[in-house]
Write a structure and sequence with these properties.
212 residues; alpha+beta; outer membrane lipoprotein receptor (LolB), chain A; 11-stranded antiparallel β-sheet; two-stranded antiparallel ribbon
């Protein structure tokens, strides 16, 4: 079913949620303290799968929204859940073996050709999902040219220019498995700014799709 491009946040959240969006955008852009523990990086070949929960805020020109997210990743499958305060406006992106679906907050299901197309139609912008699986862990995406990459003294990536996106990382911390991951990621491209605050991580083949 085809629909004209319409930012996802206009469909996902109730009027009350959209009134709260400005406050939440401010909240998620306040940085926390940085942890300096050393620990191994998790490479793509070692992950198998992961699940990460957190918050996100998006500004696109004069528009914006914020939400909680749960991203579950495994080979050949990604599920991204978005929901507002008190569980309102729960919606889901699913990419399984090349089949992409979007379940809107009202329960309607729509099919898209690619995750990029789904994001563009429903969010109003698109992040490359295969690169994002690395970016969210503080890594360069392999196989793509890197314009700029800067690391700090401990080796943590603090700035990356890749695929026309600039990513700024901070608040690194160690997960329970010892991996160091960023606690705050600000990604900008043109007039789009996406702030991610990943907070709860689990890794390994059994990590994804075990959470509700």
């Amino acid at each position: 079913m085809q629909r004209a491009a319409n930012p996802f946040f206009l469909k996902v959240f109730s009027n009350e949620c959209r009134h709260l969006a400005v406050c939440l955008v401010v909240a998620v852009t306040v940085g926390g303290c940085t942890w300096f523990q050393t620990g191994p990086k998790i490479g793509a070949a070692d992950v198998g799968g992961f699940a990460v929960k957190g918050r996100m805020a998006v500004r696109h020109g004069d528009d914006g929204f914020s939400s909680n997210f749960l991203w579950q990743h495994a080979p050949n499958r990604d599920e991204i859940d978005l929901w507002g305060p008190v569980g309102q406006g729960h919606s889901r992106f699913v990419d399984a073996d090349g089949q992409v679906s979007v379940t809107a907050a009202n329960g309607d299901v729509f099919r898209e050709d690619t995750v990029d197309a789904a994001m563009q139609r429903w969010l109003g912008f698109s992040l490359p999902i295969d690169a994002l699986t690395h970016w969210v862990r503080g890594e360069r995406a392999p196989g793509y040219a890197v314009a700029t990459a800067t690391a700090d003294a401990s080796g943590d990536l603090v700035m990356l220019d890749q695929l026309a996106w600039r990513l700024v990382y901070s608040d690194y911390r160690a997960t329970t498995g010892g991996a160091r991951v960023p606690g705050r990621i600000v990604a900008t491209s043109g007039d789009v700014k996406v702030t991610l605050l990943p907070s709860d991580w689990s890794f390994g083949p059994g990590a994804a799709f075990d959470t509700p």
